[in-house]
Specification:
Helix content is 47%, strand content 13%. A hairpin with a 3-residue loop joins strand 6 and strand 7. The protein starts with 7 loop residues before the first helix and ends in an 8-residue tail after the last helix. It folds into three domains: 149 residues, P-loop containing nucleotide triphosphate hydrolases (Rossmann fold); 37 residues, no CATH class; 89 residues. By secondary structure, it is an alpha/beta fold. It has a five-stranded parallel β-sheet.
């Protein structure tokens, strides 16, 4: 059933109903994005929940989620549309053989029948979505700067211009969520069109709440021990600090191994679930790991 996100409180409650724990500042940004029909731009470290909020929003609003995963070299053919050249060629051959449509020209080969819609076009096309949708433009910082320039038209007027057809406009604006891991700066012209929010690593109690919501099978003791260890691990000089996603992965791994508490051996065997770079694994050598482990066994937040 569609949920009405008509206040900050109902927005936070709807997200919580989808097992996404949002503080008031984030819930406010989400609410304003929907209320003002402006894109929501989320930046933060990998694994802090930027992508998950789009999924939670789509479920809460009971609308389709359309996701565009950005990468270097992304162009309009992958992001917006391209022509189905194979279908066009078959149509031409059928006409030459006298088995095609009555039209003899080629102009009508460039109409919607031969158009392959990609995520951005699908998001503003009611025929594709049936109405409103959530459009997730994920990891925009991985795309080239030229792609940002194209997004300006979409995010300003929610329209896309196709030379052979004309300008297509959204009858109902999608809810747009853009994310960035900040591997490069996004241009100010694009940011000005958005509601901006930085998602930081959660504090100890909030992360415990998130993890218990996502991994209810874990004991309260193990959950607090794991979160305390990860929180202290983030204070180390690491190339890539583990996010909440890694916390959950590690806890689920421990559950799969039937572990009730952390130990030196299980830490040594499973640290690769948390840390993804060899340099980071070498930094957290046995003495350092044991030091963090002893502190985490207290089940409390790291010292402020």
């Amino acid at each position: 059933m569609k949920t009405s996100l008509d206040s900050i409180e109902t927005t936070a409650s709807a997200l919580a109903g989808e097992r996404y724990i949002a503080d008031r500042a984030l819930a406010t940004s989400v609410f304003l994005s929907i209320e003002l029909e402006k894109p929501l731009f989320l930046e933060g470290e990998p694994g802090v929940g930027k992508t998950e909020i789009a999924k939670a929003l789509a479920n809460a609003l009971d609308v389709p989620l359309i996701r565009l995963q950005c990468y270097e070299g992304l162009d309009l053919a992958q992001a917006v549309y391209e022509w189905n050249y194979t279908k066009q060629l078959l149509e031409l051959r059928a006409r030459e053989a006298g088995r095609g449509s009555e039209a003899t020209g080629v102009a009508d080969l460039f109409d919607r029948r031969f158009l392959l819609s990609r995520p951005l076009l699908r998001a503003i096309d009611e025929a594709e979505t049936g109405g409103r949708c959530v459009l997730l433009i994920d990891e925009l910082d991985r795309a080239d700067e030229e792609f940002e320039a194209f997004l300006l038209e979409l995010l300003s007027d929610y329209q896309i211009t196709i030379p052979e057809i004309g300008t297509l406009r959204a009858s109902e604006r999608p809810v747009v969520v853009l994310t960035s891991n900040r591997t490069r700066e996004i241009h100010d012209a694009l940011k000005r069109r958005c509601i901006y929010h930085w998602i930081d690593f959660p504090d100890f109690e909030k992360e415990v709440t998130i993890v218990r919501e996502r991994a209810p099978d874990a004991s309260a003791e193990l959950t607090r021990e794991v979160v305390a260890f990860v929180q202290m691990l983030r204070d180390e000089d690491l190339f890539k600090r583990p996010g909440v996603a890694e916390t959950l992965d590690w806890l689920n791994a421990l559950i799969a191994l039937d572990r009730e508490t952390l130990s030196d051996d299980i830490l040594r065997d499973t640290l690769g679930v948390l840390l993804k770079y060899q340099d980071d694994l070498e930094k957290i050598d046995s003495p350092a790991a044991r030091r963090l482990l002893e502190r985490s066994r207290q089940g409390v937040a790291p010292d402020s």
